[in-house]
Design brief:
about 20% strand, alpha/beta, about 150 residues, 5 strands, 5-stranded mixed sheet, about 45% helix
Length: about 150
């Protein structure tokens, strides 16, 4: 199974990819939130021949949903509608807790994350990879295959 992961933000969306045969998340890049993000994500989805999308789901330190959680849920709903209408394909999306993934991603770059690295989406892509790696390590893929493909 091939998986595209998104770390959805209000300015940038980090993108990562994995194949469950290998189970290693790979940061791929960033999609700017500029009004063209849905067609761009659809292009990544086709390019990677993905079977599903994993989206990070932010929560606060108590584990409850926040305003950003609702922004992510609304974005995913819009993405599903876009795929249904424009791509003529149903989109399967799973959520994965993303508590502190951006902090962890910045830590990987050290204390001096440059503006250039941030603008290039390196931190966002790394955050998406952390989300995806967590998903890879916590998911029963035999069960998920049955849910997605009805096998």
């Amino acid at each position: 199974m091939r998986i595209l992961a998104l770390d959805i933000g209000t300015k940038r969306i980090g993108v990562a990819f994995a194949d469950t045969k290998v189970r290693i998340a790979i940061p791929r890049g960033m999609v700017p939130v500029d009004g063209n993000e849905l067609p761009t994500i659809a292009k990544w989805y086709r390019l990677e021949k993905a079977d599903l999308i994993v989206s990070g789901l932010p929560r606060n330190s108590q584990g409850t949903e926040t305003q950003q959680t609702q922004i992510v849920r609304d974005f995913v709903d819009n993405m599903k509608t876009y795929f249904s209408e424009q791509e003529q394909t149903p989109l399967v999306v799973r959520f994965q807790d993303e508590s502190l993934t951006s902090v962890a991603a910045e830590t990987l770059f050290g204390n001096d994350v440059s503006r250039a690295d941030r603008a290039a989406g390196k931190v966002d892509a790394e955050a998406a990879a952390i989300i995806l790696q967590d998903f890879l390590e916590s998911t029963n893929f035999d069960q998920l295959e049955k849910e997605i493909h009805g096998a």
